[in-house]
Amino acid sequence: MSLKPTILIVPGLRDHVQEHWQTLLAQELSNCVTVPALEQDKLSCQARLDAIDRALETIDGPVIIVAHSAGCMMVAHWTLRRARPIAGAVLAAPADVETPMPAGYPSRDVLAANDWLPIPTTQLPFPSILAASSNDPLTELTRARRFARDWGSRLVELGPVGHLNPASGHGPWPKAKQLISDLLRMIEAQEMELATQD
Known about the structure:
Blueprint: E1 6-10, H1 21-28, E2 32-34, H2 45-57, E3 63-68, H3 70-78, E4 88-92, H4 108-113, E5 128-132, H5 141-151, E6 154-157, H6 175-197
Parallel strand pairs: 1-2, 1-3, 3-4, 4-5, 5-6
Helix pairs in contact: 2-3
C-alpha cells in the first residue's frame, strides 16, 4: 500500500468510554478518526451506518477500520451498502446480537426492531482479522468462529479476555496495533498477488 491508511475507529453501542482501548488507541495514533457518538437514535442500526458514512466523507485515501463489539456488526451491515472501498478491517470481540445478551444490554426484540437482525453472512469485500475471546459474555467462541468463516476473516483466538472492554480489564490493549500491522501485511500480500495476475 503506497499511502499510509487512516484508521477509522468504530465503537460499539456504548460509544466512547475514556478507559477503552479504542479511545486510548485513537489518542496514540496520529492517523486516526473515530466515528462520533450519536446524540439521538442511538439504537438505530441505520443511524449508525449513516454515522460511518459521514466519518468516511472526512477521510481522503485508504482506510482501515478498527471495530469493537456491536461496531463489528455495523461494519458487516455497512459493507452491504458501502459507498467507497475499504482497505481492510480489524474486528475485535464482535457482539452476537442474535443471541440474548446479559442484563443491561438491549434485548433481541429491541435490536430486531432497530434493524440489527439478521446478522449479515456475506463475505466482506476486503481483508479482515476477527479477534475473539474464549469467555466473552456477549458472544460464544463457536459463534465468533462462524462470523469469521461467513465474513472470510482470519480468526485470532485471544484466550479468556472477556469482552475486551474496561469491565474485563482493558484498558490499554497493545495487541490492537499488532493486529493492524498484521492486517497491513495481509493487504500488501493480496495486492502483490493481484499484481502478478495482471
